[in-house]
Amino acid sequence: xxxxxxxxxxxxxxxxxxxxxxxxxxxxxxxxxxxxxxxxxxxxxxxxxxxxxxxxxxxxxxxxxxxxxxxxxxxxxxxxxxxxxxxxxxxxxxxxxxxxxxxxxxxxxxxxxxxxxxxxxxxxxxxxxxxxxxxxxxxxxxxxxxxxxxxxxxxxxxxxxxxxxxxxxxxxxxxxxxxxxxxxxxxxxxxxx
Length: 193
Description:
By secondary structure, the chain is mostly helical. It has two domains: 9-150, no CATH class; 152-193, no CATH class. 70% of the residues lie in helices and 2% in strands. Helix 1 packs across helix 2 (30-45), helix 1 packs across helix 7 and helix 4 packs antiparallel against helix 5 (100-120). The longest helix has 28 residues, at 68-95. It is globular.
């Protein structure tokens, strides 16, 4: 595994996202580019750790039934988690029988509902979540490009197998292996995050 010992994680991911956007010819606002870079930076630092431990349909329904800022927060986090999951672990989803298009529609829908809340709240400024909703599939491809440069396909399979063993709790020492591979597994009160 090749490891880039870049000391500035922010610049590293900003550069990776910019290159992937160019490679996929996805035209975005600077705000959307910064949002996606920030999402990757947060995941790399372990700051954004969202559980997708229950069916997405239930999580989306619960988010839509929430009120106010809680609703917005849940919708945004579902969009973020689905975008990251599809970008980095798309194959794992399809191996588990998930319908990729359905999962993508949930992520896009979550961003779309959060965006609508902003507009209803009188926010007439730049709406990054609307852009993420409209161009969701393109952003998934961008994150897939970033993942492909960070983790080689053979290493990605290793990471997925190790993560699945860690998730089941069937192997001791696997958490250390994941950390060495650049994945920081966290268990939360609501399940695996």
